[in-house]
Design goal:
36% helix; 9 strands; globular; Rossmann fold; alpha/beta; seven-stranded mixed sheet
């Protein structure tokens, strides 16, 4: 029985925010159990936005090396990425890294060797099934690297299980767009970062608004499309949270790859778009970096940092 089927459930349980979060949690629980993205209709996909190519093939398409993938614990890569945040994070030995929506541990296990034995990488995920999968892979990671510097915590990215100013770098891969309260996510990121700490995120965003019929698709929500916001709104949320040096790079190659490989979700979106338009006219992957300013520094940004 669902929360809203329970007459004794609190009213907040049936709020739109709760409904979206539970849809996402249920969808990603199925991914953890099956190793692919299972939609409400039962169709399976291999990635966050569901390509017909394999998880490893997608990872190479978006910037991971075959050598990186080869040395990951089995099953850590479920094809849920839309970018490579560890490539833009400039990680250094000894840093504490927090991965939001860590899933099976893909980026956590890649970041671990970069921060070394003196560093720590913490994955946060709200789906118990994902945490179970990731924690089971820790032993293989330690055997492969000789390191014991990763952990996984249960939690929502709107309420991170981490202390104030305890993290050097926050990373995330195609997850923040799924949150029903994105401004709160960015406030939490700013809270846990140390002054001078950095954000390095890959995510999905909109170049222009999607037609309403697409935003209503459950598959599109789990597929990292319906929850995406416009680039300027994305940037404004980060600035409102107190972050600075915000830079957003649109990465059209990801959507182009999914479209060319005849992804079922993207085919459905294409069918609903106005004549003469393509998915890439509306949706893009992005790489995002930002900094938490040092105490007393000027956080004014004199120009739009969208590249």
């Amino acid at each position: 029985m669902g929360c809203c089927d329970n007459k004794n459930a609190p009213s907040s349980c049936c709020s739109p925010t709760h409904d979206v979060r539970e849809q996402v949690r249920d969808g990603y629980a199925k991914i953890a159990q099956t190793g692919s993205l299972a939609t409400a209709a039962g169709a399976q996909r291999g990635a966050c936005c569901g390509p017909a190519l394999s998880a490893d093939e997608l990872a190479v398409q978006i910037g991971y090396s075959a050598d990186q993938i080869r040395h990951l614990p089995e099953g850590a890569n479920m094809g849920l990425s839309c970018g490579n945040p560890t490539a833009i994070a400039a990680l250094k030995p000894g840093q504490v890294v927090l991965d939001l929506g860590s899933g099976g541990g893909f980026d956590v296990f890649l970041a671990g060797p970069k921060v070394g034995a003196a560093g720590r990488v913490i994955g946060v995920d709200m789906t118990p099934e994902m945490l179970t999968k990731a924690r089971r892979n820790i032993a293989a990671y330690t055997q492969n690297t000789g390191l014991e510097n990763v952990e996984f915590r249960l939690g929502e990215i709107e309420h991170l299980p981490a202390a104030d100013a305890s993290v050097d770098v926050v990373i995330s891969n195609c997850v923040i767009n799924l949150s029903p309260d994105k401004p709160q996510v960015w406030r939490e990121i700013a809270r846990v970062l140390r002054p001078g700490g950095r954000v390095a995120v890959s995510d999905m965003a909109l170049l222009r608004p999607l037609p309403p019929e697409i935003s209503g698709l459950f598959e599109a929500l789990i597929g990292c499309v319906a929850g995406a916001v416009l680039l300027d709104e994305y940037r404004q949320m980060m600035l409102a949270a107190g972050l600075t040096e915000v830079v957003i790079w649109p990465k059209p190659e990801y959507v182009a790859a999914l479209t060319s490989f005849k992804d079922p979700l993207y085919h459905r979106i294409e069918e609903a778009l106005p004549a003469g338009t393509a998915v890439g006219d509306f949706v893009t992957s992005i790489d995002v970096t930002a900094t938490k300013p040092l105490a007393g520094s000027d956080v004014t940004e004199p120009f739009p940092a969208v590249m």
